[in-house]
Design brief:
Cytochrome Bc1 Complex, Chain D, domain 2, 21 helices, globular, two-stranded antiparallel ribbon, 3 domains, mainly alpha
């Protein structure tokens, strides 16, 4: 019996080898056939695309994969489905393939995920490699991939003024400033704190995003007009300009779009229209003169949210960690530095990437366990996450990765506001996102590092 199983497994292994060898580029044959522009970064992208194709990264991580015939054999079909389901939960490669094809900047989270698995050799998994012999990176493959990642970070993401040794870090220091129109900033500051944007003149933007409280309200979920309880935890407004999208589900593509949501949301500020808001603001001669001096066409929802967004661009909070990345070796303690190394070693920096240590990707909550089944509260619509916006089942339970800047000030944590203690939040993330129970000393060091992200 054992002999038969070994023969069968050997046959499957040969089929797997032949299947992948014969299906090189079957992720999308047009990728191999299209001509590539001759800009230097695009040529390198073409080489990386071919490498990832040849090593079958698309097999488990692409939504366009057409599996070879042997994947339908008994035993192999279950393994193939498991590989693809697990791969798509962790990392979907299609957007990266588009970047490599078009010569556009790859996402920072994609670069970080590639860097981690290229460095630790965990991809493809051993069982996959035992069947698909032609996969796995050679030393030269790995070096080429890591060099390309470094070149992309240097070209697109390194902060001006970062210390040279940290220019290839998955996280970067904040920029010193972002260009703004000072007149709009002044006007936007007033409007951000103006409760007349709400129906009953009781709620302003600052009510849920208090600048004295880390840019949040400290509540599990926010309160709106008439004491209505919102469905989700308010994210911080600090450094939000650096997010790729706004709200936990990413339904707003920028600060201005985000600023336009709460005033007209019936359970937040509950105004019925921008005209209702404008009628009240028009009764303030001083504000109206100031507004028309900046926006000659006067009040409108577009102009009001434009001013608020311009103010929010200034809400950058440089920290001791930024000073460290800019070259100040005394900025962090030994424990904080150890925490930062643990932060990278435990894959935290594959999602909490970039200048904002988050806000760059949508990640599934519960990669290593069912967070929602273990939670002691029932599911709600907001737990669907990104799926509510994309209507794509692959986005179920995916949320925009929150920034970790000022995290010590912004409890409670997670989209549901269910965690009040930072150490507990760290343990939950390690359990459900990494599949690891950390020691008390490691959690303590990680929390020390996170405290170094509190800014001014």
């Amino acid at each position: 019996m054992i002999r038969k199983l070994l023969i069968a497994f050997g046959s499957l292994a040969v089929l797997g080898y032949l299947g992948l060898s014969g299906y090189a580029y079957f992720h999308d044959t047009s990728y191999a056939e299209r001509s590539i522009p001759q800009a230097s970064n695009v040529v390198e992208g073409g080489q990386i695309r071919r490498l990832l194709d040849e090593k079958a990264c698309y097999y488990c991580h692409s939504r366009q994969t057409v599996l070879p015939a042997y994947a339908r054999l008994p035993g192999m079909s279950q393994l193939s489905r498991y590989d693809v389901e697990r791969g798509l939960k962790n990392f979907q490669i299609d957007a990266l393939f588009d970047n490599l094809r078009d010569g556009t900047p790859p996402a920072e989270a994609d670069l970080a995920k590639l860097e981690f698995v290229a460095s630790d050799g965990s991809m493809p998994p051993r069982l996959f490699r035992s069947v698909h012999w032609s996969t796995g990176l050679s030393d030269s493959d790995r070096r080429m991939l890591l060099d390309w990642i470094a070149s992309q970070r240097k070209a697109y993401y390194a902060t001006p003024g970062v210390a040279p040794e940290f220019s290839n870090e998955p996280v970067q220091p904040l920029p010193k400033s972002i260009p703004v129109d000072a007149r709009k900033v002044s006007l936007g500051r007033e409007l951000f704190h103006d409760p007349r944007l709400s129906a009953d003149n009781t709620i302003s933007c600052a009510s849920c995003h208090a600048l004295s409280k880390g840019g949040v309200d400290g509540r599990k979920t926010s309160l709106g007009v008439g004491g209505q309880v919102g469905p989700i935890n308010a994210p911080t407004v600090f450094n939000a300009v650096l997010n790729r999208a706004q709200f936990w589900d990413g339904r707003a593509d920028g600060l201005q779009a985000q600023a336009g949501g709460p005033p007209l949301n019936p359970i937040e500020m509950a105004s019925t229209s921008w005209q209702q808001i404008i009628d009240k603001l028009n009764q303030d001669p001083s504000l109206t003169r100031q507004f028309e001096g900046v926006y000659p066409d006067g009040y409108s929802g577009k102009n009001i949210t434009n001013a608020i967004a311009e103010f929010e661009k200034t809400l950058l909070t440089p920290s001791r960690f930024d000073a460290y990345l800019r070259g100040d070796k005394t900025a962090l303690s030994a424990e904080e530095l150890h925490g930062y190394q643990l932060f990278k070693a435990n894959r935290c920096a594959t999602c909490h990437v970039g200048k904002n240590l988050g806000g760059q990707s949508f990640e599934r909550l519960g990669l290593h366990g069912d967070y929602f089944a273990d939670r002691d509260t029932p599911m709600t619509t907001v737990d669907n996450g990104r799926e509510n916006v994309s209507h794509d089942a692959q986005d179920f339970h995916r949320f925009k990765t929150p920034t970790l800047r000022n995290i010590a000030l912004t409890a409670p944590y997670l989209h549901d506001g269910s965690v009040t203690d930072l150490s507990q939040a760290v343990r939950i993330m390690l359990k459900y996102q990494v599949g690891k129970d950390a020691s008390d000393d490691d959690v303590k060091a990680l929390v020390a590092f996170l405290n170094s992200l509190t800014g001014k």
